Amino acid sequence: MSEVLLRDIIERLGGELIGDPETRIESIEPLESATPTAISFLANPVYAKQLAGSSAACVIVAPAFRDAAAARGAAIVSADPYLYFARLTQWWAERTRPPVPAAIHPSAAIDQAARIGARVAVGAFAVIEAGAIVGDDVRIGPHAVVGAGCRIGTATRIGPRVAVVAGTTIGARGIVHAGAVLGADGFGFAPDRGRWEKIEQLGRVVIGDDVEIGANTCIDRGALGDTVIGDGVKIDNLVQIGHNVRIGAHTAIAGCVGIAGSATIGAHCMLGGGSGVNGHVTIADHVVVGGATQISRSIAKAGFYSGSFPFDDNASWEKNAATLRNLHALRERVRALEKKSP
Predict the structure, then answer these.
(1) Cα dihedral sign for 20, 24, 28, 29?
(2) What is the pTM of this model?
(3) pLDDT digits over 237-258, tens only?
(4) How wide is the angle at C-alpha 59 spanned by C-alphas 57 and 62, nearest 5°?
(5) What is the CA radius of gyration of the chain?
(6) 97-126 CB burial, b ≥16 within 10 A, e <16
């Protein structure tokens, strides 16, 4: 059963409880659609108007909304409601998700030269190649492949159909979601009289501790040196990270971001969905990049950077694009007219 009492939540996560500690909670739900047995949260003041009308049994709020929350019913007051909500979901998942048994499926293919730690689970038709080292409490999903010489740290979870290509290292407590490919060849080719000559990718992918990698994301191995993902980095689905990229600790990257080869991104950065980073660009620590922004040159100072040409109907967009193309010439004409003015 997923049902808990409010006092159970307070005992586990803390916070100030307003209301009956024996109130039963059966689910976590959004504020505007919460049912009378659900707990919800208010983190963004934009949604404060939904608080009074919410049917939730209890709402997690900041101190500024303490009185408003108390006026409608039970509440948990926390300095950071969103963080409290995040930790509540973790605890809820621990309680409600069925545990994966520490067992190796009979159809899994594990090379005799691989080293497998204690309490490891390996799903159906998974493959672990020679020289791989799999730490204690690791979970490897069905049809996943852990290549030769790979290292998987303690308590890391590898999802279904993940490919961890030869030589890749993943730290402890990582999560790699379904379909991700870690360590495929980078996009390296030398031109030769109208053809392309492949540059063999001889480096590795090295991933730190507590990294989460989204579904169908690809991280390419280095051409000579390594592609390095720092501790605590969070990467969304469908992200492409090119060869020899280096990403600093605790940076967050949203879906469909593309990072070209040899770019360096600092620690504690955030890259919005659909943004791109050119190759060989360096981004400082604590930089935030807005969605769909293309970073074409290095950023040396922390801050929020964004910029894109607004979309429009096609006819208007083409007219505006033509104007931008002629902007330099127009500027020179204006300067020439200004010089002629008395």
Answers:
(1) negative
(2) 0.92
(3) 999 999 999 999 999 999 999 9
(4) 160
(5) 26
(6) eeeeeeeeeeebebeeebebeeebbbbeeb
Q: Is 136 exposed, middle or buried (0-12, 13-18, 19+ CB in 10 A)?
A: middle
Alpha helices in the chain (DSSP H): 6-13, 66-72, 81-96, 314-325, 327-340
CATH (one of 2.160.10.10, 3.40.50.20, 3.40.50.720, 3.40.50.880) for 109-305: 2.160.10.10
- Greatest distance between any 2 Cα atoms in the chain: 91
How is residue 231 annotated by DSSP?
T
What residues form DSSP beta bridges with 163? 145, 181
pLDDT in tens, 18-51: 999 999 999 999 999 999 999 999 999 999 999 9
| 322 CB neighbour count, 10 Å cutoff | 9
Catalytic residue among 105, 143, 177, 243: 243
* Cα distance between residue 317 and residue 325, in whole Å: 12
Contact 112, 129 (CB under 8 A): no
Exposure string (b/e) for 139-176, b if CB count within 10 Å is 16 or more?
A: bbbbbbbbbebbbbbbbbbbbbbbbbbbbbbbbbbbbb
**4-96 CATH choice from 2.60.120.1600, 3.30.1380.20, 3.30.70.330, 3.40.1390.10:** 3.40.1390.10
To the query of whether residue 243 is one of the catalytic residues in this protein, the response is yes
Confidence check: pLDDT of 108 > 60: yes
Cβ neighbors of 192 (< 8 A, separation 6 or more) are none
Mean local confidence (pLDDT), 104-127:
98
Surface-to-core class of residue 52, CB atoms within 10 Å of its CB (0-12 exposed, 13-18 middle, 19+ buried) = exposed
